[in-house]
Amino acid sequence: MTFNIKNTLIQMQTYLKKTGLFEDVLIGEPKSGLGYGNKLAAAVYMQNASHRPITFQRADETMTVMVRIYRSMLAEPSSDIEIDIAGAVSRIGTDLMGDFNLASNVETLRFAGDAAVLDARWGYVEVSGTMFRVADITIPLLVDDEVTVAS
Predict the structure, then answer these.
(1) 47 exposed, middle or buried (CB, 10 Å; 0-12, 13-18, 19+)?
(2) Which of 50, 63, 65, 68 is least surrounded, with the fewest CB atoms within 10 Å of its CB?
(3) Residue 81, number of CB atoms within 10 A of its CB
């Protein structure tokens, strides 16, 4: 396939930065220095790719991107940790299900039919010795059907 995933990841990072919700927005796993204090941070990851043949020359391709939102467990007041993460998840979900365009090979975000759905799950993760409360947002992207299978 001739899909430019790099452009899609950069466009998702750019969108997240423009929301003004995050102190840091990375592509890939953070190693250190992430969202200190009372700030949110985010990272964009590839999660899944699936292909379903439509014809000999075309396939239906769905790429699943995960956006992980981070907030230090040391942030005060502690109730704001949940409130701020939930607010960011709600804002991102609303934006993505609205009139959203990644300006890349992605035709649309995929929320119907047999494909994955927009999903958010909360948990905890340690980065460089600091524990973070996180929310993982799963975002299914339908690749533009103009992308053709290489012969």
Answers:
(1) middle
(2) 50
(3) 19
Contact 57, 39 (CB under 8 A): no
Where is pLDDT greater, at 93 or 49?
Answer: 93
Give the pLDDT confidence of 70-123 residue by residue, as tens digits: 999 888 888 999 999 999 999 998 888 776 666 555 545 555 455 557 789 999
Q: What is the pTM of this model?
A: 0.81
In three-state secondary structure terms, 1 is coil
Domains and CATH numbers, the chain: 5-28+40-143 (3.30.70.1700)
pLDDT for res 84: 95
**52 contacts 60 by C-beta, under 8 angstroms:** yes
The residue type of 120 is: A
